Amino acid sequence: MKSISYKTITGFLVIIFTLLTSQQLSLSVPLDVYKVGVKFYVSIKLWGFSTNGTMEVLRHDNVRGENVVLIKSQIKEIRGLIGFLVKFLRVYKEANSFDSYIDPKTGLSVRYEVYKLKKDGTKKPNEHIFFDRKLRRIVSYESNSTTLSNVSPDIQDTFAGFLDLICIFNAENIFIGKLYSLNLYLYKEEHKVNIRVVSQKIVDGHKIYTLKIERLPDVFKYPASGTFEVAENGGLMLPTKGTCTIDLPIKDINVNCELTLLNKN
Q1: The whole model's pTM is what?
Q2: How far apart are CA 117 and CA 256, in angstroms?
Q3: Which own/partner contact pairs does 235-242 have at CB distance under 8 Å and 24+ positions apart?
Q4: Model confidence at 224, in pLDDT bands (50, 70, 90)?
Q5: 12 — alpha (psi -120 to 50), left (phi > 0) or beta?
């Protein structure tokens, strides 16, 4: 079986950890998503195996003179049928941790690091970049060499964008037909993704919206699309669950995700 890179892992997570816009928000929201201690839990299921992870606002920091917050996302565990698991363990040889350093005033990514965190606490780096917005480029954090040039002014990593999504859902009206666009940085490439609100329903007095992503960045080099739900939860509008469909030549694969807010701090 072909080894799977962290690009594929992030493709699985993009259903939940995705962004709808990178605009600044002046409206207050009932959850400060950049407050230290805010934590999310995501579970992912594919065929006979499942994995889960967390996304947490760890601390305030400073990157090259910019005040940021550090968002750490980690894949926590894998379980499932032993034979299937042995093959898919190769997914985790490349990366299991994603650090996003975000300017909380703009919601934009400043620094992004991808690595494998070993049992002894050491890191095996995969990618470490800086968003040079003045020159509209992505550069290596260590050498400052250009990784990607002429990028969109609002390009972000996937995990930083997820926090924007929470802000948008709690500061703007959601309605059927509304279209959002994103500029997503994923493994040395920029991807433009369009998302549309396609339906609304009421369950136990709470509104639930379904959003559809017509085309995600390719997973396994095959076309992928997705849908996810946004629902009222404790006075907040939050993504709750979603499905990514990978269009293989023989049979489609569905990757199911569920999201839980563990701590509002």
Answers
A1: 0.80
A2: 25
A3: 235/30, 236/30, 236/31, 236/166, 236/170, 236/261, 237/169, 237/170, 237/174, 238/166, 238/169, 239/16, 239/165, 239/169, 240/208, 242/15, 242/16
A4: confident
A5: alpha
pLDDT in tens, 83-135: 344 344 344 446 788 999 999 999 899 999 999 888 888 998 889 999 999 99
- Check: CB of residue 201 under 8 Å from CB of residue 178: no
- Among 78-82, 182-186, 204-208, 226-230, whose mean pLDDT is lowest? 78-82
Place of tokens 């709690």: 170
Using DSSP bridges, classify how beta strands 179-185 and 156-157 pair: parallel, antiparallel or unpaired. Answer: parallel
Report the 10 Å Cβ neighbour count for 151. Answer: 18
Q: Which tokens is 204 given? A: 């136990």
Question: Phi then psi for 219, rounded to 5 degrees?
Answer: -110, 130
**Largest distance between two CA atoms of the chain:** 54
Q: Domain residues of the chain, as ranges? A: 6-258
